[in-house]
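Sample intake — 2-polyprenyl-6-methoxyphenol hydroxylase-like FAD-dependent oxidoreductase
Collected from: Archangium gephyra
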Amino acid sequence: MKTDSTSVLVVGGGLVGLSAAMFLAWRGVPTVLVERHPGSSPHPRAIGYTPRTLELFRAVGLGPRIPQAPADFRLRRSRVESLAGKWFEETPWTPESRQEPRVEYSPCAGAALSQDRLEPILREKAIALGADIRFETELIGFEQNADGVVASLRARDGSEYAMRAAYLIAADGHRSPIREALGIGRKGRGHIRTLRSVLFRAPLEEYLQKGITQFNIDQPGLQAFLTTYGDGRWVLMFSDDEERDEGTLRAMVSKAIGRTDLELELITTGRWELSALIADSFASGRVFLAGDAAHTLPPTRGGYGANTGIADAHNLAWKLSSVLSGVSTPRLLDTYDAERRPIAWLRHGQLFARADYAADAAGSSKDVPILDDDAVEFGQLYRSTAVLDAGDELPPALRPDQWAGQPGTRAPHAWVFKDDERVSTLDLLQRAWVLLAQEERWCLAAEQVGKQLGIDVQCLRIGVDVRPSDEKAFRTAFGLGTGGASLIRPDGYVAWRASELPADPLRLLGDALRQVSCATR
């Protein structure tokens, strides 16, 4: 049996696997992705992508490729008899909370693009960056030891070969044979119910004029969920596991629409397991779980499913890159589980605390307060050895303006000028370590510490390299005095902060960077 080799093997070619391959290749990591199917699923599946996900895609150059929704867009849902019948109350995702004035937290808005439209964009970008994508290639089995992982693969022609990799990312879905082989259990609300669906095409744009795109159908003989993919395709979902023939499906679609005079094209049907389960560990040796393999979170208007998995891939990619390049010890990889598993549990709790799934909570959301959407989206807190001063006394999430640059949170967005170009602070991050400071002594320290540790640290001086229109407001956003500094990780999260200039910035920065990067020197 022949043996191929790569640095990282990704198993699973859905949104999360493709994102992992893309983020890794963008960082120059040799990556092979295998997917047993010949392409994307015929079901559109996920559709909503959050501003944070768009920030991650923007960093790798995909911003212009993905059409974004208006800045004030939010998914709206209403209970209706049918589209053409009576419309009842609108149900919010999060109870309204007035916040004046409105704060701009991101340079990005969300996107409403079906998964089968987004996956080819990610695939094309990953390949352009150097990732090796192999469809119709199945993982038969794998073994790991202290030196790496050896996977047995079967190609489309039936031939078998081995793939040796330093690390393996399991993005192989909610049933995850890799997770099962590792013996990793799961906890959470568990199985909720089995759903059946029918995907169809119909000219129903007139019913979208109010801005509502999701509908709970409530009429005698039909309780179902109807939503659009924004491209003429719609899906009707039934909360049962009943097989229906084409004639029955057409009749039920017509009942949900409330009209029989429209031409309907039935595209395909589906069967779905709705569950909420979090893996007991997101890693085992050199194998890492991501996406549904790590956590199944039912579809929500908060974007807790695919978006959470894409963030897993982003978190893991820079850490694998740092370890594989020899900059960090493998201890850095321990922080993947430490940072991402609590986020999955945070979203699990938020999901069942809200009205959409409250009836399915079965006690899993008891005493869980509903958090601000901007806090969940932009202000989740990481606690790990790759962050300093993010103690257990801190809440799991706050809005960025409430955090004010707290280590363990995403560095805040602010518009600045760099080389006479107006950019977001986020556009200056996510590639390497960045030290943001106003005092020149910090930049001298960053240069010296970077050489000592073999780490590329870019120092950006406030007022010189980046010029905010209001320096005081900018420093407040990052929690910095005039002599302070903020150390930001390659994933855009604040790792450490000094509010003011210490007596020995070189020693303080060196100690901090050595710890949070798990430096090899």
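Post-analysis note: The radius of gyration is 24 Å.
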